[in-house]
Amino acid sequence: MNVYGLGLLGAGISMLVIFEMLRRRRLREKYAVVWVLVAVAIAVLAIFPDVLTWLADITGVQVPANLLFFGASLVLLTANVQLSSEVSRLEDKVRTLAETIGLERLDRLEHEGRCAALLQRPDAAPAGTAPAASAEPRDERPERR
């Protein structure tokens, strides 16, 4: 098997893995499109290796392999930046959800505490404290952003 056959084999295996991940819902369609395009580009370069030489001549790169490595580096850099922005967005979403759930639980606990205090008899209140039923409820939650 020559280098071009190896490229075709790699592109075929990549396509199979991508479609299997899509089928099992391990990869979303918006990411799969990019990787399918990369696999197709690999297949095209394996079938028509002169395309890389032609592109190297057009861009002024002396060694076609250098153009290939440069293009692959750009693809990986772009994927990394896109995934980093996606992770940042999801971290913000998780933080906001955690804060919302925490505030809701705090509200529920405060409400349950007030209900329990209202059910207690005033003479059952601990010594030195005002009866719970007459106490004004205070809102001590932190401000929401």
Characterize the structure shown.
This protein has 145 residues and is mostly helical. It has 2 domains: 48 residues; 58 residues. Helices cover 73% and strands 0% of the residues. It has 4 helices and no strands. It is elongated and about 85 Å long. The model has no long low-confidence stretch (mean pLDDT 85). This is DUF2304 domain-containing protein. It holds the Pfam family DUF2304.
What does the secondary structure layout of this molecule look like, with pairings?
Blueprint: H1 3-23, H2 29-47, H3 50-59, H4 64-119
Helix pairs in contact: 1-2, 3-4
Compact summary:
With 145 residues, the chain is mainly α.
- Give the helices and strands as they follow along the chain: HHHH
Total beta-strand segments: 0
How much β-strand is present in the residues? under 5%
Describe the biggest sheet?
none
Our Rg estimate from Cα atoms comes to 31 Å
How many domains comprise the coordinates?
2
Q: What sort of overall outline do the alpha carbons produce when their principal axes are compared?
A: elongated
Tally of alpha and pi helices: 4
Task: Please state the average pLDDT score.
Answer: 85
**Poorly predicted spans:** none
> Structural class from helices and strands?
mainly alpha
Distance between the termini: 62 Å
Query: Helix share of residues?
Result: over 70%
Protein name: DUF2304 domain-containing protein
Organism: Actinomadura parmotrematis
InterPro entries: DUF2304
Keywords: Membrane, Transmembrane, Transmembrane helix
